[in-house]
Each structure stands twice: as structure tokens, then as C-alpha cells.
UniProtKB/TrEMBL annotation, chain A:
<dbReference type="GO" id="GO:0005634">
    <property type="term" value="C:nucleus"/>
</dbReference>
<feature type="region of interest" description="Disordered">
    <location>
        <begin position="74"/>
        <end position="94"/>
    </location>
</feature>
<dbReference type="Pfam" id="PF04189">
    <property type="entry name" value="Gcd10p"/>
</dbReference>
<feature type="region of interest" description="Disordered">
    <location>
        <begin position="270"/>
        <end position="327"/>
    </location>
</feature>
<keyword id="KW-0819">tRNA processing</keyword>
<feature type="compositionally biased region" description="Basic and acidic residues">
    <location>
        <begin position="316"/>
        <end position="327"/>
    </location>
</feature>
<feature type="compositionally biased region" description="Polar residues">
    <location>
        <begin position="276"/>
        <end position="288"/>
    </location>
</feature>
<feature type="compositionally biased region" description="Basic and acidic residues">
    <location>
        <begin position="289"/>
        <end position="299"/>
    </location>
</feature>
<protein>
    <recommendedName>
        <fullName>tRNA (adenine(58)-N(1))-methyltransferase non-catalytic subunit TRM6</fullName>
    </recommendedName>
</protein>
UniProtKB/TrEMBL annotation, chain B:
<dbReference type="GO" id="GO:0030488">
    <property type="term" value="P:tRNA methylation"/>
</dbReference>
<dbReference type="InterPro" id="IPR049470">
    <property type="entry name" value="TRM61_C"/>
</dbReference>
<dbReference type="GO" id="GO:0160107">
    <property type="term" value="F:tRNA (adenine(58)-N1)-methyltransferase activity"/>
</dbReference>
<protein>
    <recommendedName>
        <fullName>tRNA (adenine(58)-N(1))-methyltransferase catalytic subunit TRMT61A</fullName>
        <ecNumber>2.1.1.220</ecNumber>
    </recommendedName>
</protein>
<feature type="domain" description="tRNA (adenine(58)-N(1))-methyltransferase catalytic subunit TRM61 C-terminal">
    <location>
        <begin position="64"/>
        <end position="293"/>
    </location>
</feature>
<keyword id="KW-0489">Methyltransferase</keyword>
<keyword id="KW-0539">Nucleus</keyword>
<feature type="binding site">
    <location>
        <begin position="114"/>
        <end position="117"/>
    </location>
    <ligand>
        <name>S-adenosyl-L-methionine</name>
    </ligand>
</feature>
<feature type="binding site">
    <location>
        <position position="163"/>
    </location>
    <ligand>
        <name>S-adenosyl-L-methionine</name>
    </ligand>
</feature>
Length: 476, 296
């Protein structure tokens, strides 16, 4: 959003905001609620003092569990030009160099010593500290700081932060989608404001949220979902303004075939007051729902009837009966309203999909990608990108092969992304020791028209066939 | 057509991407009466392109055919005329996410170069964001501005022909994100900090050499930037292949009864669908260093 001069308020934390807490490389998504205890990295505290502060502020957790904004003082004055050794040839690692015991440290913590002070105590009580090289001393201080610091940074949620959080905390929930792979998906899919994007994901709503962030509330997103309802927890963590939700539709995949065949009827023909009437329409949804409504209505009725027959003349019971009937009516009305809302939503989503002119398709799920892709690609306009993520390579090989056979897509590419972090310090620059082993695979491509051109002779070969210049004795 | 909005039909003045076959494409400026030569024959713009849908198959004069695609920043990156070494989609994708770019973002970039990243940024920040891009080479700056106009994104970008290390980006306190792809990024860190919003923002520096990275990280730390992180990303491509592997013949496990004249032919083989890596791959483009400007 464009910045209005010096108006800070959109950069400050408000109550009810969705934020992300950060310490080092650990992230956690929470909602700011006053007087509610939050747990993060084995510490309990209240987020109340974060309200009104700028996003990106670092806080100290003080005794009592409250947050205090940390003053940006001149840090690192502790590592003065004190004594240091030249190498570790005489340093014995016998586990006895630290004189403070665990209990001692606990006592210091209870006394309310800040993280930095505890680290200072550890340095002073270490017999080998002054023999370490300067580099080793810095490394030691960094390590202890990480263990004993109690600072928390409050961040605005974003795709970057949430993708790293999910990948670090709960990769299983997002099919082990690594954040750089997600970045590739958003770019290869040309996700941008004003387009119409279809998303099918079982990544807790993270992919959906990422797509919505890149659309900025413009255009529309249709979330295709398996099962009973769409999962959106990850998307909620983005904390989008409410108008973003107006652009979001959902469509259950169990109706995809009906929609493609033109057999999905989203009009409830019978506006009868009796919700139990079976409408003469073809839509499974309204039928099963009305049946469900009927069966739910039935059981309390019969129960009440049983009770009523025994106490038919009691005026108090009569009044109770009246009230129960009123409640039943209200519940019945509420159910009808809900069903009507659901029907409207389905109709709206179907209307968006029917034109088969979507601008992009993003798939990232635990389902076999092949049928998902082949089914949903039909909703895309020609010359539009699609991206399919899979934790495994083989299912995407199948997708590739089937798409090649059926045509309608060009520039098919099966890729995976390799990422490496670096430690950059004077005379100590090198890649970080631990590296991510894998972040999943992507199949991307662009749709093309499947109509034959009106003019010119038609041949059976696709342009792709012309490229074959086999250097191996294998079939292409 | 525009690079920030899809349209259905090809019109005069559009840029279209002609897809000739596997990894073979070319950009085309659509004009009434114009013609484009391809290896499959001639494409006549007025007859074959204007009024057709993007994504259609177009038959050329020699009988071969091509597809006409709607331009995207990704296709542009693969087809644009190089005036400098460019950034490719893999790096661009990570830069976009790590700088937290989205509609409405205000971004400062230097150097503009050939405009590869610029187009991707414009696509992401449209319709309400703005890109301030600085290029110290006059002709490149002019060419970039011209291309932005032709691609109908001129309203989203300001090109400045100046030296970012000396004069900065030309704006202060407005940027959500700053991107540096210059020989001496450490000299521009202060300017990057000034260009960014007071309340904070993200910065990225792209450098091929590790020495540049070291100097830049030091400069960022000195200016109080936080969350300084350096990484590199590479894309591995997997070529899908059907391969036939012959099975070995270990002979029969029954003793021979009578010597036969014709040996039993054993041409058993197994068909596998698998992938092979290409012979070469991009091993290094540059190191990406990201940092956050803390709120004051």
C-alpha cells in the first residue's frame, strides 16, 4: 500500500493483528490478544506491550512475562581488545573449564539477570576463554548469547517469514515445500494483481496465502479443495485486510466433473418453507444437504414427541413445548440461511470457473499431481502458466509424459531448486555447514490452444518433435 | 497486452512471443503489414497475428507452425536483447519473495541493465506500486525507458541516468525495498538506507564475487542493518526420458540336451521412464545478500 506521508499507524502493531515472533531462526505465528499468555521458545509472556510499537521492534522478555522494547544501545563493547590465544594446541576439552554449574546459572536467571549479563558471567567463569583465539571467543559468545538471550522480534507476516516458519517448524504440513521452491512457483506462475488464479493445495493454506499476497486483493482466487472444507489456517496467519477475502472463492473438487460436463446445477429450484423437501434438481449438494437437514430435524422432534405424549395437559409443559418449537424454527431458519449461503458461494465459484479462462494454476498437494493437473488444466485459458509442486519426482514425470501425449502445453520443465546459505565474516567466510537436502520438485509449463488452425495443412507433429536430436541411444 | 495485465486478443503494438519449439522462442513487435521470418516460413502480422487469440497455433508460409504467446516477465527474460549480463528467473523469484514485494510496493533498483529484473518487479508491484531504477550508462537508461513505454508499464517506473553510489536513487524515505546489482554495492548502502522508509524495509545485493559480498555485509552491519543473510540458489533441470536398458544373458540354467543350430535369441530389455540431468548446468550466477533496515 502506498505510504501516506508520515502516517505511521499502518506500520505499528495493533491488537488483533496477526504477527510472527522471531528469535534467531525460529519463527512462530500468533495473534495479538491482550492479557493472553503466549508461549514461544520455552518462555511464557504477554504481548500487550507490543501494541503501538513499530513492526520489526525487538523486545526483551523481562521477569513477570512482559515485553520491553530493547534500546538500540552500542552493543558488542564486551569484546574489547582483551587477551586471546593464537590456536587451540594447548586447550583441553575436558568439560571442566566452566566453573558455574547449571544450578548457578538457574539462580542467576531467577535473580533476573539479562541474557547479556549471564553471558558475561559465563565468560568470567571460564578458565579457557582467554586462551581461545579471537575467532573462537566470538563464536563462543555468539553461541552463549543464542542460548541465554530472551529477545523477541515482532514481525509483520509475509510469505517469506511464514514459508520459512512452516518449513522449519512443521514441514510435514506443507508437503516439505521449501521456501525457495515456493518463490519459484509464485514467479513461474506469473501470479500478479488482477488475474484469476486457481489454487489446489494441501499446505495448510500457506500456498493460498502466498498467492493472495501477490495478488494484493485485486483479481480473484479460486481455492479448489478436497474433502469437507478448505483449509485456511496458513492463509489466516497472513493477516490480510478483510476486502481480500472478497476475492477468494472456494470450490469442492467433487463437483469438478459435473462442472466440466455442464451438469452442475447451482440453482435451488424449490424455495419451499419445508427444508425437508427433496428438490427435483441434479445437484448433489442441495440434495444431500436437505436430506441431512431433514434427518437432523427428525431426531429432536421424535424425542420431544415422546416426552410430550406423557405430559400433554400440563400448562408449564405447554409453555416449554412452545419454546422448544420456537427454538426448532430458529435453528431451521439458520440452517436454511447457511445452506443458501453455501449454495450462493458454490454458484459464484462455478461462475468464475465456467468460462475456462483462468490465468494461472498452482498445485501443491499430497495428492497424485497427474489427475489433479489434467483435470484442472481444462479451466485455464490458452497461453497461461501452470505450476505443479510435488515432494517426489516420479509423479511429475508421469504428468510430463501425459501432458506431452495429450498436447495443449508447451515449455514443460521439470526442475528443482538448490539453496545454500553462507556465513560471511572477515577471514571466516564459507558456506554454512548444514544444507537443505531437498525442497521438492516443480513441473511448469504454458498452455496453448488445442484447436487446429483454420488455414494451412494440419500435420500430426507437434513443434516439440522437431527438436529431437538424440545424442544417446535412447528413446526420447 | 501489457506486461502487468493479461489480454485475450493480439493487437497492433503488442509484444508477442513466438514459440518455435523446445526452448526456441523469439519476441515480435506486432505491426500492421509487417512480416516476421522464421525457420518455418513467414508470419504475416495482419493476417496471422492481429485479432488472433494469444496461445493460438499459427501456420507459417512454408507449412510449419508456431505458437504465439502472451508476454510475461519470465518469457521476456529468456528473449530480451542483452545489453548486459542479466538476472534469470531463479534468482528473480527468490529476490521477489525475500524482498517481500507485492502490489503497492515501492522499490529502488540499480543498475537497470537490460531490464530483466525490472520487468519482473513491475509485474509484482502493479497496479499501485512504483519502481525507481537507476542506470549510469546513458544509452542503456534510454533503451530501458523506451522498452518500458512499449510494454505499457511506463506509468509504474521512473528511470534515472545517474550514479547511485554518488547521487543515490533520486528519492528518499519512500522505498519498501532496495535492490543493488552494481560492481561496488558497499558504496551504495548509505544511499539505500536513505531511500528506504523510516519505518524499515528490505535490501538485497547481488554480487558474483565473494569479496564483494564481504565488503557489502560489512557495510550493511555498519549501517545498522539486521537479519543479514547471504545465500545462493541454483536451478536443476531434469530432462524426462524413456530409456531402454538391455538385460544381460547369463545363459540357461539347464544343461544342453542336444546342440541346437540356432541359438535362442535373447533380446530382453526393460523400459524405464526417468530423468537425466543435462550435460551442463548453471553452477553460479551470484551471491544474494539480504538484510532488514530496522525501524528507527
Amino acid at each position: 500500500m502506498a505510504d501516506n506521508g508520515d502516517n505511521d499507524s499502518q506500520h505499528r502493531v495493533n491488537e488483533g493483528d496477526y504477527v510472527v515472533l522471531k528469535r534467531g531462526d525460529i519463527y512462530k505465528a500468533v495473534q495479538i490478544q491482550k492479557k493472553k499468555k503466549t508461549v514461544f521458545e520455552k518462555q511464557w509472556f504477554f504481548l500487550d506491550n507490543a501494541v503501538g510499537e513499530l513492526y520489526g521492534t525487538t523486545f526483551e522478555v523481562v521477569t513477570g512475562g512482559t515485553l520491553q522494547p530493547r534500546k538500540p544501545k552500542c552493543v558488542e563493547s564486551s569484546a574489547d581488545a582483551k587477551e586471546a590465544g593464537t590456536d587451540n594446541r594447548n586447550i583441553l576439552d575436558d568439560g571442566k573449564s566452566q566453573k558455574l554449574t547449571r544450578d548457578d546459572i538457574e539462580t542467576l536467571k531467577e535473580q533476573g539477570l539479562k541474557g547479556q549479563e549471564i553471558v558475561q558471567q559465563l565468560i568470567e567463569n571460564s578458565t579457557t576463554f582467554r586462551d581461545k583465539t579471537e575467532f573462537a571467543q566470538e563464536k563462543y559468545i555468539k553461541k552463549k548469547k543464542k542460548k541465554y538471550e530472551n529477545s523477541v522480534m515482532v514481525l509483520r507476516p509475509s510469505c517469506r517469514v511464514l514459508a520459512m516458519m512452516y518449513h522449519g517448524r512443521e514441514p510435514g504440513k506443507i508437503c516439505h515445500l521449501r521456501y525457495d521452491t515456493l518463490a519459484q512457483m509464485l514467479t513461474l506462475g506469473n501470479i500478479h494483481a488482477g488475474s484469476k488464479v486457481l489454487v489446489f493445495e494441501t499446505c495448510a493454506g500457506l500456498v493460498l496465502g502466498a498467492v493472495m499476497e501477490r495478488m494484493g486483493g485485486y483479481g480473484s482466487v479460486v481455492q479448489m479443495y478436497p474433502g469437507g472444507g478448505p483449509v485456511r489456517a496458513g492463509m489466516e496467519s497472513f493477516g490480510f485486510p478483510s476486502h481480500f477475502h472478497d476475492t477468494l472463492h472456494e470450490f469442492p473438487i467433487c463437483h469438478v466433473n459435473a462442472l466440466l460436463a455442464g451438469a452442475l446445477d447451482t440453482e435451488a429450484k424449490d424455495k419451499d418453507a419445508d427444508s425437508g423437501q427433496a428438490n427435483g434438481d441434479k445437484s448433489n449438494l442441495t440434495q444431500t444437504d436437505s436430506e441431512k437437514a431433514e434427518s437432523k430435524e427428525c431426531s429432536p422432534d421424535t424425542e420431544d414427541q415422546c416426552m410430550e405424549t406423557s405430559t400433554s395437559t400440563d400448562p408449564a409443559a405447554d409453555k416449554e413445548r412452545e419454546e422448544r418449537e420456537k427454538l426448532r424454527e430458529i435453528r431451521g431458519q439458520e440452517k436454511k440461511v447457511k445452506m443458501e449461503e453455501k449454495r450462493k458461494k458454490l454458484a459464484a465459484a462455478a461462475a468464475v470457473l465456467e468460462g475456462r479462462n483462468a490465468d494461472g494454476l498452482v498445485i501443491a498437494s499430497r495428492f497424485h499431481p497427474c489427475p489433479v493437473l489434467l483435470g484442472l488444466i481444462k479451466f485455464l485459458a490458452p497461453s497461461r502458466p501452470f505450476v505443479v509442486y510435488s515432494q517426489y519426482k516420479e509423479p511429475l514425470i508421469e504428468c510430463y509424459t501425459k501432458l506431452r501425449e495429450q498436447g495443449g502445453a508447451v515449455s514443460l520443465r521439470l526442475t528443482d531448486s538448490w539453496i545454500r546459505h553462507y556465513q560471511v565474516l572477515p577471514n571466516r567466510t564459507h558456506p554454512v555447514l548444514l544444507m537443505s537436502g531437498g525442497g521438492g520438485y516443480l513441473l511448469s509449463g504454458t498452455t496453448v490452444s488445442t484447436d487446429t488452425p483454420k488455414m494451412g495443412p494440419t500435420r500430426g507433429e507437434e513443434p516439440a518433435a522437431k527438436r529431437l536430436k538424440l545424442t544417446e541411444t535412447t528413446e526420447g | 497486452m501489457s506486461f502487468v495485465e493479461y489480454s485475450e486478443f493480439i493487437q497492433e503494438g503488442d509484444v508477442a512471443i513466438i514459440f518455435l519449439g523446445h526452448d526456441s522462442m523469439m519476441p515480435v513487435k506486432v505491426q500492421q503489414g509487417a512480416q516476421t521470418q522464421t525457420r518455418y516460413g513467414v508470419i504475416r502480422h495482419s493476417k496471422d497475428l492481429i485479432g488472433q487469440r494469444f496461445g493460438t497455433k499459427v501456420t507459417c508460409s512454408k507449412g510449419g507452425w508456431v505458437y504465439v504467446l502472451h508476454p510475461t516477465p519470465e518469457l521476456w527474460t529468456l528473449n530480451l536483447p542483452h545489453r548486459t549480463q542479466i538476472l534469470y528467473t531463479t534468482d528473480i523469484a527468490n529476490i521477489t519473495m525475500m524482498l517481500e514485494l507485492k502490489p503497492g510496493s515501492v522499490v529502488c533498483e540499480s543498475g537497470t541493465g537490460s531490464g530483466s529484473l525490472s520487468h519482473a518487479i513491475l509485474r509484482t508491484i502493479a497496479p499501485t506500486g512504483h519502481l525507481h531504477t537507476v542506470e549510469f550508462h546513458q544509452q542503456r537508461a534510454e533503451k530501458a525507458a523506451e522498452e518500458f513505454r512499449e510494454h505499457r508499464v511506463g506509468h509504474l517506473v521512473t528511470v534515472r541516468n545517474q550514479d547511485v553510489c554518488k547521487e543515490g536513487f533520486g528519492v528518499t524515505g519512500v522505498a519498501d525495498a532496495v535492490f543493488l546489482d552494481i560492481p561496488s554495492p558497499w558504496e551504495a548502502v548509505k544511499h539505500a538506507k536513505n531511500a528506504m522508509k523510516r519505518q524499515g524495509g528490505r535490501v538485497c545485493s547481488f554480487s558474483p564475487c565473494i569479496e564483494q559480498v564481504q565488503k557489502t555485509v560489512e557495510a550493511l552491519a555498519d549501517e545498522g542493518f539486521q537479519e543479514i543473510s547471504t545465500l545462493e540458489v541454483l536451478l536443476r533441470v531434469h530432462d524426462v526420458r524413456s530409456i531402454t536398458l538391455p538385460l544381460p544373458d547369463f545363459g540357461s540354467d539347464q544343461p544342453l540336451e542336444t546342440p541346437t543350430d540356432t541359438p535362442v535369441p535373447s533380446n530382453a530389455s526393460v523400459l524405464c521412464k526417468t530423468t537425466t540431468p543435462p550435460r551442463d548446468m548453471a553452477g553460479h550466477t551470484g551471491y544474494l545478500t539480504f538484510a532488514t533496515k530496522p525501524s528507527v
